[in-house]
Amino acid sequence: MQFISDREPLTEALSNASRALSSRGSITGLRWTVAAGLLEIEGRESDLSIRSTVPVDGSDTHFTTPASLAVDLMKSLPGERVEVVVEDATVSFRSGRAEVSLNLLNEFDVPPLGIEDQAAVTVPSVELASGISQVAIAASRDDTRDLIYSGMLFASSPEGLRLVATDGIRLALRDIAGINMLNDTDTGEVVIPTRAVRELERILSGSAADQLLSVRIGAREAVFSVGSTTLATRLIDEPFRDYRRLVDVSYSRVMLADRSQLVSALRTLRRMAKEARNSSMLRMTITGTACELSVKIPQIGQVHEVIDVNFSDEEFAISFDPDLLADGIDGVESDVVRFEFLESNRAASITNSDSRSFVYLLMPIVQK
User: Fold this and answer.
1) Start and end of every DNA polymerase III beta sliding clamp N-terminal domain (predicted)?
2) Distance of alpha carbon 299 from alpha carbon 303, whole angstroms
């Protein structure tokens, strides 16, 4: 059995599907299924699956190949077209004057993810991708932590959709107006694993600006489809932490700073901070019209930079992890960044200067 495909979309489909497989998981193969002129490549684990389709010319077939090796070999083939030939227990890829063969794997026995009877809603893919990128940075990457720290909240809000994530040190929130994708759920909110959210963001970032995302959310699973790729994930079956009391705070100190000045200063300060053997901190000393940013690494050196600000209080000092601070500023979309402070040992708020559609809360580093 054989079929022919353009190499570039086939490589992209392989790459997409392979990202569903964790490096620590027991599944190492991708399932290829050809039916009616369409090839579907799927990577599937118990809590995440990614499927991509590619038009092909040839006979129907199905088989399983090693994931990472198939991706790397397909990328390295020289021609624009690939002929795929399945014979007994091997598959061959022929392109240009090159030919590679792989031994096939046994079919993986993992129950499929998906929702058959849930109605789909469509949302703008670019807007959702932008919101996810602003919030996902605050979710924990440590799979051994409490599940609630390794997931992102998707919740209905009066404006549309609210995204929230936290790792216990910081919290990011984004309200996206006009996106309504949870109205049919029982609670109006779901928690999606961070790994699935990051893969969804990557898929959406590669889609066309005017492309719509199809969303189906059930009681235990969610399915997202855009273009030729579908991602299905299990939901986290635990309520998200009560974040509202952290966000709804009245702050006594407000600082407004030019975003471009901050980004430029942080570039230098973060470079010095990388020289620290363990953790480092960035100190902010603020007066009415100036903010001194400083990083000092013992036996290495120090950096000081002053930027213009507008501050509502007397002199105030607070310290942060420089990388976590930069993550919050990266999420701000306005030209001016609004900082709000309570005390030097309480979380600070970073937002746009003209709205709270994006909120980033960051705990300071307290010197002992």
Assistant:
1) 1-111
2) 13
Lookup: tokens for 335: 């030209």
Instruction: Yes or no: say if 232 and 221 are a contact pair by the CB < 8 Å rule.
Output: yes
H/E/C letters for each residue in 226-245? ECCEEEEEECCCCCCCCCHH
For the whole model, what pTM was predicted?
Answer: 0.90
Rounded distance, CA 34 to CA 55, Å? 9
pLDDT tens readout for residues 241-260: 899 999 999 999 999 999 99
**Cα–Cα distance between 99 and 182 in angstroms, integer?**
48
In this predicted model, what pLDDT tens digit does every residue of 308-353 receive, in sequence order? Answer: 999 999 899 999 999 999 999 999 999 999 999 999 999 999 999 9
Q: Which residues have CB under 8 Å from 144's CB, separation 6+? A: none
Token reading at 207? 């889609």
State the CATH class of domain 3-103. alpha beta
C-alpha to C-alpha distance for 154 and 161, rounded to whole angstroms: 7
Strand order from edge to edge, sheet including 57-58? 57-58, 2-6, 81-87, 90-95, 98-103
* Least confident range of 53-62, 86-95, 174-183, 285-294: 174-183
Q: Which of 24-33, 247-256, 277-286 has the lowest mean pLDDT?
A: 24-33
pLDDT at 184: 66
Q: Which residues on neighbouring strands pair with residue 216, listed in sequence order?
A: 223
**Max CA-CA distance within the chain?**
78
The span from the CA of 194 to the CA of 333, in Å, is: 23
DSSP string, 62-74: EEEEEHHHHHHHH
Segment 101-123, tens digit of pLDDT:
999 999 877 777 766 667 788 99
Could you please state the CATH topology (level 3) that the domain comprising 250-362 is classified under: DNA Polymerase III; Chain A, domain 2 (3.10.150)
Average pLDDT over the chain, rounded to whole?
92
Dihedral over Cα of 339, 340, 341, 345: its sign: negative
CATH among 3.10.150.10, 2.60.40.420, 3.30.200.20, 3.30.70.890 for 121-245: 3.10.150.10
